[in-house]
Amino acid sequence: MKIVNPLKQLPGALNFLREVKTEGMRVNWPTREKTIKDTLIVIGFAVAIAVFLSVSDYIFQSVLDRFLL
To answer: Where, by residue number, does the polypeptide cross the bilayer (predicted)?
Structure first.
């Protein structure tokens, strides 16, 4: 097994972090309003699906209870 000196890897790691910072500055980030709007849409869909699944579960459970009990 080859033993690597961590200090020899330091320049490469620092270069990587500089590149990450540069790339992060180039990203076209969405506006705050767009982010809030999209988040509310996702939450709305999640709530709608949860309600649908809850109602479906209740209906199926009621049907099964009538036929099995």
So the answer is: 40-60
Q: What is the pLDDT of residues 4-51, one digit of tens each?
A: 666 677 788 889 999 999 998 999 989 999 999 999 999 999 999 999
Amino acid, res. 32 = R
Closest CA to 11 of 3, 2, 19, 21: 19
The domain total for the chain is: 1
Domain assignment present for residue 36? The answer is yes
Range of the domain at 67: 30-69
